[in-house]
Amino acid sequence: MSAPFEERSGVVPCGTPWGRWYQTLEEVFIEVRVPPGTRAKDVRCSLRSRHISLAVCGQELLQGKLFDSTVTDEGTWTLEDRQLIRIVLMKTNRDAGNCWTSLLENEYAADPWVQDQMQRKLTLERFQRENPGFDFSGAEISGNYSKGGPDFSSLEK
């Protein structure tokens, strides 16, 4: 069974009642569907290191303690086509072993299969960064890839 990778970005999305979230080695992306015609002045978004809150037209859509810490000054949100809010959070811990299992501490968890696919994707992303001359786009991972996969840093070159 192949992962539900989106062809262009290679993300493994985790669906939620309000939209979806996904991650890379460095960032967490949150996409929230909002009523068509929403204006930026209708949006209240607070991004802190371990906390997020989002309200549109006074209605809270997302609020709680993040799964892990983020770099507060690097967090951004945008309103796209007046119907989608995209939030980008920069992870504090940016290694392949730091695969978020949920967006918030006790909410919006990825199901086990999606979590497995997320971990595989982050491990492949790590291998690509460590080996820039190789193409891992068609690679599949099997075996022990949890916590970012095997560590080859101690091998002699």
TrEMBL record:
Name used for this protein in its record: NudC domain-containing protein 2
Species of provenance: Sylvia atricapilla
Database matches in InterPro entries: CS_dom, HSP20-like_chaperone, NudC_fam, p23_NUDCD2
Residue stretches making up the CS domain: 14-104
Locations listed in the record: Chromosome, Centromere, Kinetochore; Cytoplasm, Cytoskeleton, Microtubule organizing center, Centrosome; Cytoplasm, Cytoskeleton, Spindle pole
PANTHER family attached to this UniProt entry: NUCLEAR MOVEMENT PROTEIN NUDC (PTHR12356), NUDC DOMAIN-CONTAINING PROTEIN 2 (PTHR12356:SF18)
Subunit annotation: Interacts with LIS1.
Keyword list, A-Z: Acetylation, Centromere, Chromosome, Cytoplasm, Cytoskeleton, Kinetochore, Phosphoprotein
Summary of the function given for this chain in its UniProt record: May regulate the LIS1/dynein pathway by stabilizing LIS1 with Hsp90 chaperone.
Region ranges (Disordered): 138-157
GO terms assigned for molecular function: unfolded protein binding
Keyword Hydrolase: no
Gene Ontology cellular-component terms listed: centrosome; cytoplasm; kinetochore; spindle pole
Biological process per Gene Ontology, one example term: protein folding
A Pfam family recorded for this sequence: CS
